[in-house]
Amino acid sequence: MIRIRGGHGMRGWVAVVIGMGGPLQAAGQEADSLLRRPAFLDVRAEPVADALRALQRSSGVALAFSSDLLPVGRFVDCPCMTLTVAAALDRILEGTGLTYREGRRQVLIGRGSDGGAVTPPDRILGFVVEEGIGRPVAGAEIVTDSGTVVLTGDDGRFVLARMAARGVRSLRVEALGYRPTTVSLTEGVSAVRVEIERAPIPLAELVIAPGSFGVLDVAPTTAGISVSREDIEAIPQIGDDVFRTLKRMPGVSTDDVSTRLSVRGGTPREVLVRLDGLELFEPYHLKDLDGALGIVDVQALGGIDLVTGGFPVEFGDRTSAVFDMHSRRPPAEGTRTTLGLSLSSLSAVSQGSFAGGRGHWLGSARRGFLEYLLAVTEVSDDLRPTYWDALGRVHYLPSDRHALSAQVLYAGDDMRWLDGATGSGVRSAWTNGYGWVTWASSWNGRLRTETVASVGRLTRDRVGDANNPDGGGFSPLTSAVRDLSTVEFGALRQDVSLDLGPDLLVKAGGEFRGSSANYDYAAHSTRYAVDGSGALHVSAQQTAVSVAPSGREGAGWMALRGRLGRFSLEGGARFDRYTLTDDSEWSPRLLGRWDPDERTSMKGSWGRYVQGQGIHELASQDGQDTFRSAEVAHQAALGVERRVEPGRSAGSVPPLCPQPAGGVCEPVARGESDPRGGVRSTAGSGGREPGPGCGSGPHT
Fold this sequence. Notes:
Blueprint: E1 2-6, E2 41-47, H1 48-59, E3 63-64, E4 75-80, H2 85-92, E5 99-102, E6 107-110, E7 124-130, E8 141-144, E9 149-151, E10 157-160, H3 162-165, E11 170-174, E12 181-184, E13 189-196, E14 212-216, E15 225-228, H4 229-234, H5 242-245, E16 252-253, E17 262-263, E18 271-275, E19 278-279, E20 284-285, E21 293-294, E22 301-307, E23 321-327, E24 335-341, E25 345-354, E26 359-368, H6 370-375, E27 382-399, E28 402-418, E29 425-442, E30 447-466, E31 477-501, E32 504-530, E33 536-547, E34 550-564, E35 567-578, E36 583-594, E37 600-611, E38 631-642, E39 664-666, E40 679-682, E41 690-691, E42 695-696
Parallel strand pairs: 3-6, 7-13, 12-40, 13-39, 14-15, 18-23
Antiparallel strand pairs: 1-24, 2-4, 5-6, 7-10, 8-9, 8-11, 11-12, 14-22, 16-17, 18-19, 20-21, 22-23, 24-25, 25-26, 26-27, 27-28, 28-29, 29-30, 30-31, 31-32, 32-33, 32-34, 34-35, 35-36, 36-37, 37-38, 41-42
Helix pairs in contact: 1-2
């Protein structure tokens, strides 16, 4: 896949330490000698970024640069074995418009049009890492004393834009699985590195269900097995489809053509698929080819939670698994646009922030062109499958306790098939549209609510005919099919959780959905046969279904979760009501977890799971005009997880705090207790030694 990134909105110098692969500078060595070190470099036809990394390894000089500033598709030669680092950089950066200068223990590379300032003095650049190992913490919430809220990116970085950074004196950092930390800033600071300490996961966020996996954004505190975005992008697969990656998970399988997931022997319709809290009823493209691709571009996704064992009561109306997708996080500042080109599709994803980082937006569009690939193959039939999808999301934080978001997802398919020899053909068109608004709140630190209001529309239009299938000599079969359907729905969902204490939680919720559909199906076929005596027999078959069902679905649930030492237990029940089939079903469930040590978890579950037939699932092509009663399954699961801590490597360490020219870099420190329950870090008041670029000791 080819990807072109741009539009960060970051002018001037941007100092991001890409790696620390070489040896660290000796304590007594002068910083001004870095550029005079021997390069020991010999590279031929290497991309600029790879050449810089090679120079870093060969010379032992740490280089700070942003890959987004480097030219795409530019290759350089540098036979620089006998040259200095400065001379090697002159050759590598020639014609790029980038310059370099020395910091205290690293060489900074960037655009120097603003006089070499790494960060404007009215903007704060920060990094949040895990204490002790330096692993970046993604999704951490940064709250300023003025109320501005921003989130860290996948690499642990955050940026307070110019307006939000003015007058800030302290930052409060919170992240799932870590102790809240407050950092006091001195006047003129423009860069800060924050280390946060691991802490027990809050009971509300503790994953008890066995068979829980995290995909894309690594979430080691909540998921037993994680697959990173880099892993997915490195795996060759049709259409860069994330569903196909999941077949490598335990208990999950797909076939060679369809991307539909089967979990532990269940059928694909038994898997609940959600995007940002909304259930997707038809999440696959090319349904006439058994759903060959998913309707959400993997480039627009930030994370996926997959639960293949017993799941809690808030997930209902499915009996096999939960596939929960989340949109991608925004960049730290400005906008970022990614163009993707593969053998099957062209895609574009754009992200950005507004309102001083309190809001962000995401736009994604993808167009498949499998029809062009098939056109150049030796396929005799004229097969032209076309698909497209678009996703838009706007998210805004009106305060540090409330979040609002509005989203739209639209996907469509159009397929043509023509048998040139017989004149038989099929034309089909499918559309999938959803719109929803989400309001999430944390009212007093103990009470949390989430409300999701949604509407949706699904359409199907298929026409097909078969005539003279033997080329016109004798026609044993002629047929014609017309299939039209439209499904519309509106839904409201409410989730509530309340902390009764640090080790006791109650959660409840409800959902109501009203839906209507219109099915119009007609098929006619005539079959000819000749018996042994030469007599001709003609048989005809007709199928016609024309119905307009409507119905309501309601559900309510409640569960109590508690923790005693290393044991956690959750018990609850769910009630589902389906007016289409006049079914009312109770689903009791029990989940437990035991953590014998910090790396090992044993999880078990038992429950009753109910699944009603959706209004969109009527098999009119089989002559059905009524709905079946709800299906019931009893499931027990047991899982054991052992987390292996990743080894420390220089390439995985986030950028250490850069030393801005004309600004002040905030050192890292441990401090006194935070009266709000966290740890207060005060610059210059004890703690660990400052690191490279901001004063601290070696990190690997």
